Structure formats: structure tokens, C-alpha cells
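User: I'm putting together a teaching handout on how sequence relates to shape, and I'd like one worked example. Could you take Calcium binding protein 4 from Catharus ustulatus, show the sequence you're using, and then write out its predicted structure as C-alpha cells right after it?

Assistant: Happy to. First the sequence, then the C-alpha cells directly below it.
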Amino acid sequence: MQERELSPEELDELLDAFKEFDTDQDGYISYKDLGECMRTLGYMPTEMELIEISQHIKMRMGGRVDFEDFVQMMGPKLREETAHMVGVRELKIAFREFDMNGDGEISTAEMREAIAALLGEQLKAQEVDEILQDVDLNGDGHVDFDEFVMMLSSR
């Protein structure tokens, strides 16, 4: 059985994720950022997988990965996981649905409205605050995109 090629959309998705973690824009991402990057793509690596991948990258690639190596690493995972995964693009679309004023964060009011739309019922302010507290990892009173991804991937 021959492996299928990645679609242009899948390659775009990998590139979006890669660019997001290539913070200094040198064309590489560090092995330290790889786990987070994989989670952003909807792939949930085990600690053991991350250790193995990190060892491989440290020994063979000088501790960092370029886009080509990243595609080689993630391509098979994307192909096998596609049916169960939510991609970066879908996550961003969902995040924008919640972030009604487009400021890049989900406020308590936006969270309350989104939950009401999803559940078809209003939650008490205290219930929304509790949800927000669990999800708001940095404690700034809002949910940013990374916190949103973590919230969805921890389910």
C-alpha cells in the first residue's frame, strides 16, 4: 500500500504551525518547541514519543528541525491521524467564533455567550467564571489561542 501524498491544505497547515513556532524566523524550530507544535496540529504525543523524537533531533539534527524535516516527521502522523484530528485552521476558526470582538482573546462575556450558543442554555456567571479559571492558564482573565488549544486538547 502506497502512502498518499499530503494535500496542499495539509502542507499549509504544517507550514502555519511551523511558522508559529519559528519565533526568530530562522527557518528552524527547537526540539523543545516540537511537542507544543505537534499539539497545535491536533496530534497528542506521549511523553515517550517526545523523548524519542527529542533524542533523534538532538543527535542527528543539532537540536533543531527545518521545515522539510518537520514535514517528514509529521507527514505520516497527519496521514494516520487525519480522521481523528482537528487542524490548526479549524481551531483558529473555532477560536474566532468565540472571540466575537476580534481582539485575540476570549473574555468572560464572550465565553458566556459562546457556551449559551453551544449548550442552548445560559450558565450562571459563577459557572462561566469557574470554566474560565480552569482554562486561563496565565491568570489574565482572558483565554488566548494557546489556552484555547490546551483546553480542547486536554479533553
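A couple of points you could highlight for students: Residues 88-153 form a domain with the Recoverin; domain 1 fold (CATH 1.10.238.10). Residues 47-61 form the longest helix (15 residues).
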